[in-house]
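# step 3/5: fold
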Amino acid sequence: MALINRTEAKLSLNFHKGQWQAWESKKRFVAVLSGTQGGKTSFGPLWLYREIQRKGPGDYMIVTPTFTLLELKALPEFQNYFEKMLRVGRYTSSPTKQFIFSEDGERRTFGYKPEQPTRVIFGYAADPESLESATAKAAWLDEAGQKKFKLASWEAILRRLSLAMGRVLITTTPYDLGWLKQRIWDKWKAKDPDIDVIRFDSTENPMFPQDEFERARRDLPGWKFDMFYRAIFTRPAGLIYDSFDEAQHKCPRFSIPKEWPRYLGLDFGGVNTAGLFYAKEPNTNPEKYYLYREYKAGGRSAVEHVKHLLDGEPCIPFAVGGSKSEDQWRREFAAGGKVGSQEVPGLPVRGPEFADVEVGIDRVYGAHKRSQIIVFDDLNGYLEQKQTYARELDKNGEPTEKIEDKETFHFMDAERYIIGHLMKNATEFKQSNYYR
């Protein structure tokens, strides 16, 4: 943990090794992955203030998964540094959560008073739309590895920083194998020049008891100890598609021959209609399907969805989608019509042949087990959902039958409809995390 002492009206910062590495990093995206109580959140305000000094007056962002988490962790650390120690401004929670620099604080930070006050704006990542209105020069994202910190929020933050090419600090413990692993860890491992990752155990903080670390090693499941005390990405208990292997089941994008048969899985919805496009490679045994496109949009009529789904496709795909009760959606998709002056053909969509969610899950699981689904590695929405689709855990940390936040996994439902149909004659595999 960073220790801050006031001596002769100056602040001296005493970092442990992991914090010092992050402080010295010059990369645009810096991820500090730490075990619990490793000193990651206390590091955030220091990094952000230095970034404000470097980038000058303007708006900056602090984003947490929820406002509840903000008030428990990041905000107290921020206020301790910006209000109590530096005394450069004041935090207000209404009408918006923001910290506004005082005139004196700006003069001490920048050497002059700018025309517009400098602000730190607080956002929450469970609602990506809440992040769209800001334009910022840098951002600190605390606990960005949590499930409520959506991929769409990460993308929205990048858009808010694009004008200034602002830097990002991520401080978190790994919680699953979602976008943080896909977009930060994996790219860093592949030598992305813009990304730096600093990982350390809880015990890197000299104040963390070694006895507590050893107790956790002894008492916790291995995956939980590795994630929460060592900040190592590990498949958590309850992950539904543990048969999906990134090393075997992802590939770089390539041009798919037009003659390959096309298939489409659809999950209907007024807010989110999701689609996944697969192409079947000829003469393979077992049959092999390449997932090459994902679609998700809302606020469109059925015919508008069909227009956008078919744009760029070489043919009308064989489509399966919706639950047994969603015949009206299927009728509207099949009807066709006009979008402006363009005539849009109907898209026939078959209903699923089974109503049991578990049947579809088992068929997808088996397709992964047999390496029948290969995914283009730039399909970030699908890959995030694939690596976070999980069952709720009971009080003993064991998976239950209930799927966690099932209503948010539209791509997984779309896949289940089409792959469940294509694999109806295949030998089924059961999910190892639930079926013992």
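# step 4/5: annotate
The two ends are 42 Å apart (CA to CA).
# step 5/5: archive (pending)
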